[in-house]
Amino acid sequence: MFLSQILHKFELVKHNLTIRRGILLLLALFGVIIGGTIFFTARYARNTFVNGEYENAIEILTILGRQIEKNLNDNDKGISGDPFRFLQTAASVQKTQENFSFLIRDSQGIVLAPAFAAGKELPMTRVHWLTRDKGCCLAYVWEKECFVVFYPMPDRPLELVAVYDNDYMFEEVYHTLMLFAIVLSAIYLILVLLSWFWIIPALERTIDRKNKVENELNAARRLQLKAVTQDFPRAPWFDIHAELRAMREVGGDIYLCGMVGKKLSFVVGDVSDKGTTAAFMMFTISSYIRSRIQTGIPFDRLMEEVNSLICDNPEYEMFCTLFMGAIDPDTLEMEYCNAGHTRTLLNGAFLDQDPQLIAGIAPGYRFHTQKCRLQHGDRLLLYTDGVTEARDERRAFFGEERLRAWMAARPAGAGCREDCADLLDTLAAFRGKAPQNDDIAIMSIRIQ
Amino acid sequence: MKTTITEKDGRVVLAVEGELDTDTCPQFKEDIQPLLDQAPKALEVDMQALEYISSKALRILISLQQAVVANKGAFKVTNVQPAVREVFDMTGLAASMIQD
After folding, report:
1. Can you give the pLDDT at residue A158?
2. How many domains does chain B divide into?
3. What region does A270 belong to: left with phi over 0, alpha with psi -120 to 50, or beta?
4. Cα(A96)–Cα(A89) distance, integer angstroms
5. Among partner residues A272, A341, A362, which is closest to B56 by beta-carbon distance?
6. Of A171, A188, A427, B52, whose CB count within 10 A is highest?
7. Using the beta-carbon criterion (under 8 Å), do A272 and B91 form an inter-chain contact?
């Protein structure tokens, strides 16, 4: 919604309803001030203009006045009783001075009454009243020509006191401006009323709802971060660190690590979806593994249990790839079981991993555990396919080769936390402006 | 990503071209929905021109396989290119799906 965009742009949504209404009132006041300014400026300009015109008219009067007076005298003394003839006289002057009308008063300064021209009422387009120290006068303007019509009093000689501009242009502009100012103020008022009683409360409700959903998702994210290991195990013979980057608020990637007896155990997995449903599944699986792994159950059995756990919930329509491993500190023997997960890297080469099915598609599938002997100084990297399938702007994959090269180039003395940070930076640099297209989980282990 | 479904004597061939990744998965799922709704007796997924498959797209293949098998039909994936083959191997699906 447009209004919502404006409110967001000015960060009005941050404030509460009262402050927002206050800001709206200020905006309304601003609108009224603008409208009022136009209104009064137009009025002032118009009055000044008309008065200025009056002064000019006085000058023209001296020329025209004499001419009309001469005309009047040239006709006969009976003019004062014959409005029609006076009308003729005035009109004839009008022809020589287009766009002017006349203000005429009698010698006593008394307003002269309008009359009929040749017995016919004049259609009037404008009537101008002017009050000057010399008295009140009336002028009628008909179409573009001016007629001054009255019954002159017999004992009062007529006196022409002003000539008035007949050009309506300014009048029209003035009226348009007035109308504009009034309409502007009215629209403003309507907008303010609408906002006050309808739009703002509606917006408030939308924002509330949005905040609620965001809060829920943030809570879910915090919960999910609790589902993965927070406090990494420490011992002199190894270093371990892992990072999780969900594409949305929550995701389906998972990592766990901890001591089971004297062994270092670790799990990295990927639920085959993104978003909230994947997060639910991931949470279920991680809770299950957490509680079962402590019993020292062999990985092949545990994998089969996880397999049936997912198979028993077909409504999720998901599967999960998992890598589980445990290292014995005395022999440095590593037991591991890979259920369709990405191939774990050992010192920049792939660990030997038998292909096994993904967990959650074949009920009763038999998994098996593999073993290998590690050495001091060995480095392991576990990751989800969000790493190898990261794409750059040209849609090229990061791929296993780049990952292998990255790991081979990592210095021997670096810590696992630095490894993770460096890999995330490397991925971000590779992606460039392209967005993250999948959840990412990485785990680095170094045998000291 | 492009899919072509052809039928001949009750045997259905689903040819997939291009890349099956996170972005194209929804389109792929939509394309094969008719096959899921009415599973054919024999379905061959021809991957001759498929350059890449993400593990996420496997989920859809698995549901397709399950639908066909549930209908007592025969499901097979053929002409798999090396890069795609690797994903099948890694996820352990090669044995049950691929027929060379």
Report:
1. 45
2. 1
3. beta
4. 12
5. A272
6. A427
7. no
Element (H, E) at A204: helix A200-227
SS3 category, A302 = helix
Give the position of tokens 């049936």: A308
Pairing of strands B42-53, B11-20: parallel
ipTM score: 0.76
Examine the domain organization and report whether A98 and A40 are in the same domain: no
SS3 A263: strand
H or E element, residue A349:
strand A349-350
Domain that holds residue B72: 2-97
H or E stretch including A223? helix A200-227
Residue A349 has a CB neighbour count (10 Å cut-off) of: 11
- Same domain flag for A111 and A218: no
Tens-place pLDDT, residues A61-106 = 445 445 545 555 555 444 443 333 444 444 444 433 333 444 444 4
In degrees, rounded to 5, the angle at the alpha carbon of residue A359 between the alpha carbons of residues A262 and B68 is: 170
CA atoms within 13 A on the CB side of A444: 25
For residues A164, A169, A175 and A176, what is the CA-based torsion angle, rounded to 10 degrees? -170
Whether A437 has its CB under 8 Å from any CB of chain B: the answer is yes
The chain A residue lying nearest B66, using CA atoms, is A361
CA distance, residue B47 to nearest chain A CA (Å): 20
d(CA A199, CA A192): 10
